[in-house]
Write a structure and sequence with these properties.
The protein is built from 14 helices and 14 strands. Keywords: Hydrolase.
Length: 428
């Protein structure tokens, strides 16, 4: 049986050197990508922490698994009682399971809830350096059965001030600003701070890799790195635009031949992750999972490529229901409430936010449609125009069909949050 290590982090998107971010110092992750497999079109199901992670680790969409908003107080969304987390599948299959660092699908401090996800061990560690050393300590222990180590990095999430102050800024390679943001001195300074946090995380990933190599564990281990959603920047996190949905996904596995610097270009969704892991490890894949295994693609065997991926958001800190469908060329977004600003509270602390406030505080149209080939920054809404009338109709039809097939509760009306029930109880 093959060991499994899954490393995830917050708010990274694809902001790594191996994905073309030339001023990001991420040599360890770039090296793993160069030696392993990198997915260039990997997307989350939701551009926000808890729903995206819940889909990643259950293989079911947020509206199906119950995680339609943030897990921490005062929002307190939870998985349905009958949902099964990846760790539980592996625990039941005979794996020793351990969680280390950040998770965001239960309350932050509820140890019993984290163990109930399927973890035998909860290891100590919060910021990158201590998480890396805790992972090293676990790997150095004797294990009498295969292990699953789930490592969650806080970095590069913004800190409690809304900034990036957990690690020193890094301008060793300069500071490029993505084209969907203004290239101002304030933006460049903030990106040096973001780069510093990414670099700190990358060093910790390097410690894990070095330990696997020194212990000769690479020949028996499937190592995976990914993130929950896009950067915590305006027009990224909490939006359905590509900078909000795109995710890094890198793998290395000598047991399966996932080596050699292969780049996979097919559309991949986070909801496909758990069924792929289960199939690859020889564990039965339940029919109720909504993702599609891409194990055949990894094996360079039979695989029917996805024609589209789906994005959904119901709640973040407010009720902001959106559903989206993305093909290789087009993105269609349906906004199901008015005044969706798509700006989380942490991003409002960014010095970039006031520089874009006129773009961000607008009422969204019912439908947005973008030609990603000719308009990769998603600036020109084509919805309602004659040239794309048939494309718009087809994407709306496919999105509606997916909502019906997955029993999306928003088809029955507005969705109340757990906070609503608690508040309503005060009236009794």
């Amino acid at each position: 049986m093959t060991n499994l290590i899954v490393i995830d982090c917050h708010d990274l998107g694809q902001h790594l050197g191996s994905y073309g971010a030339k001023t990001v110092a991420s040599p360890n992750l770039d090296q793993i990508a160069a030696r392993g497999v990198r997915f260039e079109n990997s997307f989350c199901t939701s551009p926000q922490c808890s729903p995206s992670r819940a889909a990643l680790y259950t293989g079911r969409y947020p509206h199906s698994n119950g995680m339609m908003g943030l897990a921490h107080d005062p929002f307190s969304w939870r998985l349905h009682d009958d949902e099964i987390y990846l760790a539980k599948y592996l625990q039941d299959a005979g794996y020793e399971t351990a969680h280390l660092g950040i998770q965001h699908v239960t309350g932050f401090d509820n140890e019993a809830d984290v163990r109930a996800l399927g973890f035998d061990h909860l290891l100590e560690g919060h910021f990158a350096a201590e998480v890396g050393e805790s992972a090293v300590a676990f790997l150095n222990q004797a294990h009498d059965k295969p292990f699953f180590l789930n490592v969650g990095f806080f970095e590069p999430h913004r800190d409690e001030t809304g900034g990036y102050h957990v690690a020193p800024p890094d301008d060793s390679l300069g500071a490029d600003v993505p084209p969907y943001l203004p290239n101002t001195p304030e933006a460049r300074q903030e990106f040096t701070e973001l780069q510093g946090m990414i670099h700190a995380m990358d060093r910790a990933v390097g410690r894990i890799w070095e330990t696997l190599a020194s212990l000769d564990l690479l020949k028996d281990t499937w190592l995976i790195f990914t993130t929950d959603h896009g950067l915590a920047m305006p027009r990224a996190k909490c939006t359905m635009y590509d900078p909000g949905l795109e995710t890094a996904l890198i793998m290395y596995a000598e047991p399966f031949g996932f080596t050699g610097g292969r780049v996979i270009s097919e559309l991949i969704s986070h909801v496909d992750f758990t069924p792929t892991i289960l199939e690859g490890l020889g564990i039965p894949v339940p029919e109720r999972l909504q993702g599609r295994s891409y194990w055949g693609l990894l094996q360079e065997g039979d695989y029917e490529p996805r024609q589209f991926i789906i994005g959904e958001k119901t709640y973040h800190t407010d009720y902001e229901p959106q559903r989206a469908i993305r093909t290789e060329r087009y993105k269609l977004i349906v906004n199901l409430e008015v005044d969706i600003t798509n700006v989380p509270a942490d991003i409002m602390h960014s010095p970039i936010y006031p520089q874009m406030i006129d773009q961000l505080t607008v009422t969204r149209p019912y439908v947005e449609l973008y030609d990603l080939e000719n308009d990769p920054l998603e600036q020109h809404n084509l919805a309602g125009t004659a040239d794309v009338q048939s494309i718009e109709a087809d994407l709306l039809h496919q999105l509606k069909a997916w909502m019906v097939a997955t029993d999306d509760p928003i088809l029955q009306g507005p969705i109340a949050s757990p906070y609503y029930d608690r508040a309503l109880a005060r009236l009794e």
